[in-house]
Amino acid sequence: MSNDVTPSTDSPFRTEPTARDQAPQFVLPLVVRIEKAAPPARTDALETAARAVLVLLSDERSVGDGEWAEAVRDWQDARIRKVVRRARGAEWRRAEALPGITVTGKSAEVRVFPPVPLDGWPKELARLQVSGTDLDDPEPPVAADPAAPVLWLNPDLDMSAGKAMAQAGHGAQLAWWELSDEEKASWRDAGFPLAVRIADADRWGELTHSGLPLVRDAGFTEIAPGSCTVVADHPALR
């Protein structure tokens, strides 16, 4: 599922292109493993995707003079597009053979790859399907730990699992940008604990006016441009 995020300070309704729009566009590929016999739980897939984004951002190959650093900088200097595709069987094994990082949740496996040009996907990933990422939770998720970071989803939006995975990744990334180096190191060293939950209507209204990082979708797929999709509620940012 393709997603593009517009930070809340940058209106998606502008008519004039900005430098960000004119820069070469990159995308962060994420592949979720969905085997027919044992698909992952939806919430676990969302949380695993969010952690995968954080793992890549904090990886030594993504910073400084690392081998992925230039691609990550080029990607973050434009729009932080993310595309979630699905794989199983031989498709998943081919994806695992490419440079990237696999992050495992309770039932989900998500592999994240260094950013690629929008029109320059590796063929092993380009042939994977975007559709078919609809997932369910066998049981309702337990209440989120109030002391842990929570990525709150808009209760009024009906998003496919793939769309929601990318949006959760956006929220995690916006929170990461707001943290100090010490706070980033603490989160990383703890293994990036986080929860993804759907906010109730009253809570969502409070969250969107709280000053916490807010994701506004650019509206390329599924939902209207400018829709608020995720609020990143990290304890260090409250």
From TrEMBL:
In this chain, the stretch annotated as Disordered covers 1-21
Q: Where is the composition biased (Polar residues)?
A: 1-12
Report if keyword Hydrolase is assigned: yes
UniProt keyword terms in alphabetical order: Hydrolase
Transmembrane feature ranges: none
Short name of one Pfam family: PTH2
InterPro entries per record: Pep_tRNA_hydro_II_dom_sf (IPR023476), PTH2 (IPR002833)
State which Enzyme Commission number(s) the record gives.
3.1.1.29
Molecular-function GO terms, alphabetical: peptidyl-tRNA hydrolase activity
**According to its UniProt record, which reaction does this protein catalyse?**
an N-acyl-L-alpha-aminoacyl-tRNA + H2O = an N-acyl-L-amino acid + a tRNA + H(+)
Its name, as the record gives it, is peptidyl-tRNA hydrolase
Lineage of the source organism? Answer: Bacteria, Bacillati, Actinomycetota, Actinomycetes, Kitasatosporales
